Amino acid sequence: MATVSGCTLGAVSCYSRSRVEVLNRQSGVAAVRPRRSVAVRAEAAPINPEVRKNEEKVVDSVLVADLSKPLTAYCRCWRSGTFPLCDGSHVKHNKATGDNVGPLLLKKQKE
After folding, report:
1. Fewer CB within a 10 Å sphere, N or C end of the chain?
2. What is the model's pTM?
């Protein structure tokens, strides 16, 4: 009998470090169960304690030659519902905490 991840084919299931594999008894093919996703949320406290606090909102822009869109905003407050893309959630965070965090803007460089 062949083995997959240290388990013999024909076994109902076996466990590996990175995922659970369920083995099909008839075909001997391993089917991988989808992994569960975990949402990460930051606490309601400022996340920018000292960087450029004299500015109303800290936003950095980077010019990139190879982008499909003219402008892409990436979240830096960890509250976006579309993470890693920014959805404007930093505005509510900034009002609640007095913080000044803003997105990272990737701008398409004009040729």
Report:
1. C
2. 0.54
